[in-house]
């Protein structure tokens, strides 16, 4: 990943200024992100725009930030991840977007709690269960995608067609997924 330009950093600061306006500033923040604002800039409060957007349920901004490469697991000064913020407030659409973007549900805050722990702390077993289910579904999808890619590489190399089971075993022997 390349270093952000000075212009991208300036636009990143403008994203935080737009966020200070609350929901009315969201469209401006999305526009700035789409124009190339630094999406991983850390505010003077120790937060990324993704963390703030996740805590406020600003779905269009979360989507734009993730689309432009915002780190889904970047923690704020308090040690919370965007996923923890979203699940704490039951913003399930945001939580789902973050998991699909690769957010790690096993990360812990300074108190040793995962996003699922935070959901359970708020007596929300359903949200904790959804986190686990989504994470498993995304992992299965990534595994199948990796296997399809391996089968394509296998075929492109002129090797005989192999079943996904044989390809999966070959990947494990070579240190691939779930080795």
Strand content: under 5%
Helix vs. strand class: mainly alpha
Principal-axis shape equals: globular
Give the helix level as a range of percent. Answer: 55-70%
For the terminal residues, how far apart are their CA atoms?
A: 27 Å
User: How large is the count of helical segments?
Assistant: 9
Uncertain stretches of 5 or more adjacent residues: none
Mean pLDDT: 85
Q: Give the tally of β-strands.
A: 0
Element-by-element helix/strand order: HHHHHHHHH
Largest sheet: none
Oligomer: single chain
What are the salient characteristics of this protein?
single chain; about 180 residues; mainly alpha; 9 helices
Descriptive overview:
The protein has 179 residues and is mostly helical. The chain has a domain at 128-179. 59% of the residues lie in helices and 0% in strands. The chain has helices at residues 6-20, 26-34, 49-56, 59-67, 82-88, 92-100, 115-121, 125-156, 164-173. The radius of gyration is 19 Å and the shape is globular. The relative contact order is 0.08. The mean pLDDT is 85.
